[in-house]
Write a structure and sequence with these properties.
The chain has about 270 residues and is an alpha/beta fold. Helix content is about 50%, strand content about 20%. The strands form two sheets. A six-stranded mixed beta sheet has the order 1-2-3-5-7-10, sandwiched between helices.
Length: about 270
């Protein structure tokens, strides 16, 4: 029996509020580790999704229950030279950056292992929700290499001390500790994972689509700007929101509903 080839599976869920994309990394029998082919496939899908104006949210996962992404392919990394190492790690960074640049929120749905490159991919997502069987770690130093690229996002998530702890020891932590650290926003029983993800998807879909896109772009800018310029960028985004009818329409609806509630409360019982 021939083993299935590693691949990326994309499912588009058409809803009244827009499209929900579900993207899964599938490397059968290999804990969904990322090799060059999988990274290139992920990039192609992300580039296509970025151009979809009807897209509202992306849910990223690993196929099966054993791993979100178990890391980068050690067989490929063992054969790297200084020159090819740069190309390899830049490819992984492009995947992470593609998630961060996607104009809509990305939710990491995490089961099993999220190690090394897998944790970097998760850190590049906007929101992270994990089953309680999930395990997290950055074991690169045990393999003779430093943790790099999107590991640089960890201090903003968990602080410098906890970042050093993970990077210097290579230890693995469970989902409860990851939630306590702030590495994931929520951990739930495995049986409740999809329900919890759907709650977040529904909450995002209930918001104004253009406002969500403006908000993601603004959050990304805040990560890189000093406070004074971050405030200026926010002012520009606020004004930009009024280039569409979204604020007038939604605020008008809110005011009409509020007026109706006041009128109903004023009626004699």
């Amino acid at each position: 029996m021939t083993r299935a080839e590693p691949s990326v599976h994309l499912i588009i869920d058409e809803r009244a509020q827009g499209r929900v994309a579900r993207l899964a990394v599938d490397h059968p029998g290999k804990l969904n580790i990322l090799n060059r082919a999988l990274m290139q496939a992920l990039l192609r899908e992300l580039e296509m999704l970025a151009a979809d104006e009807a897209l509202r949210v992306l849910v990223l996962s690993g196929a099966g229950d054993s791993a979100f992404i178990g890391g980068a392919d050690i067989r490929e990394m063992a054969a790297l030279t200084p020159r090819s190492a740069r190309t390899f790690i830049q490819l992984l960074h492009r995947v992470c950056d593609g998630l961060r640049r996607l104009p809509v929120p990305v939710i990491a749905r995490i089961r099993g292992l999220a190690l090394g490159a897998g944790l970097e991919v998760a850190a590049a997502c906007d929101l992270r929700i994990a089953a309680q069987d999930a395990r997290f770690g950055m074991p690169e130093v045990r393999l003779g290499i430093p943790s790099v690229i999107e590991a640089a996002l960890l201090p903003s998530l968990i602080g410098w001390g906890r970042t050093r702890r993970l990077l210097y020891t290579g230890e693995t932590i469970d989902a409860r500790e990851a939630e306590r650290f702030g590495l994931v926003e929520r951990s739930v029983a495995a049986a409740e994972l999809d329900t919890a993800v759907e709650e977040w998807v529904a909450a995002i879909l209930a918001c104004a689509p253009r406002a969500i896109r403006l908000q993601k772009a603004l959050v990304r800018a805040w990560e890189e700007l000093p406070p004074s310029r971050a405030v200026e960028r926010g002012i520009a985004a606020f004004a930009q929101a009024y280039l569409s009818d979204e604020p007038r329409h939604l605020m008008g609806g809110f005011l009409s509903a509020a007026a109706l509630r006041r009128k109903e409360r004023g009626r004699p019982s």
